Amino acid sequence: MVSQSVPLKYAYFPGCVAQGACGELHLATVALAGRLGIELIELKKAACCGSGTFKEDSQLLEDTVNARNIALAEELNLPMLTHCSTCQGVIGHVDERLKAERDRNSPYFHQVNDLLQQEGCLPYRGNTQVKHLLYALIQDYGIEAIANRVTRKLTGLKCAAFYGCYLLRSQKFSRDDNPFHPQAMESIFTAVGAEPIYYQGRTQCCGWPISSYATTESFKMAGKHIQEAIAAGADCIVTPCPLCHLNLDSRQPEVEKTIGQQLGLPILHLPQLVALALGISPQELGLERHVVSTRPVLQKLGMG
User: Fold this and answer.
1) Which CATH number fits the domain that encloses residue 115?
2) Looking at the 3D structure of the chain, how many domains does it have?
C-alpha cells in the first residue's frame, strides 16, 4: 500500500460505456477520486479497447490498438486506471502478452510498434501497470484508509457483488484476487459498513457478450443471477463493470419478461457505493439515471 502522504495519481481510461450509456459511472469515479484526493489525468486520446471483439477479426488489431492506449499512460509515467472489468480484462491481457513478447524480443513485439510508428504514435514499452479501480482502492489507497474516511456508514445494507468474468480470469499472471473465490469487493463492503451477500453467480458471466446474437439466453443468465442474489437476501447488486451493469440494470425489465418474474433489484456501480459512504450525494453520483430505481437502497440508508 502506498503511504497516504504520497498523493495517488493515475492515467485514467474511462472507456466508452462510462462516457455513454453508463455516464453515471464516470461521474461517480471522478467524484470518489476527488473525495479521496486521487488525481486522475484522463486519457482523452485513448480508443475503445474493443471489449474482446477486435481479436475476433485480428489479434494484431486488438494488441496494436491497446498498445497505443497503454503508451499514452506510459508517456505520462503513470499507471493506467480502469473502472470497467471488460476494459481491464482486455487491456490488462494485452499488456501481459506484449510484455512477454518484449522479453523474448520477438518479431511480433516489433511488428506492433512498427504499426504504431507508421501512425505517428508512441511505441509501447511495457513499463507501467494497468489497474482496475477496485484494486487501486484496496492495494494503493488501502482498506483501512477508506474505512477511516467513511462519514455515512452503510449499516444494514446487504450488498451482493457481481465481479464480471473479465476482471477475474482474463489475465494469467497479474491476478489481484482468487479468480473463483474473490474477496476484494466484499472487503470494500465491510469497510464501508455494508454486509456482504454471497451467491453462486457472483463470479460468473452476466450474459452481455452473447446478448447481440443469443438475447434470450443472455437475459436468462442475467435473470438467474439476480434471482439468486434476491434469494440470498441482497438489497442490491454492486458491480465493477458497466457492461455487466447494462445487462443487469438497463435490461432488467426485458429480463423480467423473459423469465416471467418481477425482480426490481437495484444495481450499483462500485464507486457509487463507496462514494455514498464518504458522504457524496446521490445526485452527484447519478443514482437517478438507473433504469431500476435505487430509491430502496437510499431509503434503507435513511436517505430516501
Assistant:
1) 1.20.1050.140
2) 2
Give the DSSP H/E element, type plus range, for residue 42: strand 39-42
Neighbouring-strand partners of residue 39: 9
Whether 227 and 127 share a structural domain: no
Which grid cell sits at 140? 494503493
Q: Are residues 124 and 158 in the same domain?
A: no
- Tens digits of per-residue pLDDT, 33-82? 999 999 999 999 999 999 888 888 899 999 999 999 999 999 999 999 99
Instruction: Name the residue range of residue 267's domain.
Output: 148-300
Q: Please tell me the pTM assigned to this model.
A: 0.94
**Residue 202, CA distances (Å) to 20, 65, 181, 194 in order:** 25, 30, 9, 17
Whether the Cβ atoms of residue 97 and residue 63 lie closer than 8 Å to each other: yes
Q: What is the DSSP string of 90-139?
A: HHHHHHHHHHHHHHTT-HHHHHHHHHHHHTTPPPP---S-EEEHHHIIII
- Looking at the fold, whether 233 and 187 belong to one and the same domain comes out as yes
